[in-house]
Specification:
The chain is mostly helical. The protein contains two helices and no strands. It has helices at residues 2-17, 21-87. α1 crosses α2 (21-87). The longest helix has 67 residues, at 21-87. The protein is elongated. It starts with a helix and ends with a helix.
């Protein structure tokens, strides 16, 4: 999880700076605060995020349909080519 990375970075910083365990506890509090803030931001932006996800899924669906059409065209073209070779 990304929080553990942030937590580890803060921990390494505290170790290098010679801070005590109190600072480590403060880092845990900061991490928790940042995490809660990000959850709050997500909750406030949830409708917009859901709208954008729906747009993304619709675009991916269109892409999948186009890929299927391209594959069918390639197969038809290969058959046409083979028929042309066979009739020569």
């Amino acid at each position: 999880m990304q929080w553990t990375i942030i937590y580890d970075i803060i921990y390494v910083y505290l170790l290098r700076s010679g801070r005590t365990l109190v600072c480590y506890t403060q880092a845990e509090d900061i991490n928790s605060s940042v995490e809660n803030t990000l959850y709050d931001i997500y909750d406030s932006q949830k409708p917009l995020i859901n709208e954008k996800l729906q747009e993304l899924y619709a675009a991916l669906d269109r892409i999948a349909k186009l890929e299927t059409e391209i594959q069918e065209f390639k197969q038809s073209l290969a058959c046409l080519y083979q028929d042309t070779i066979d009739s020569s």
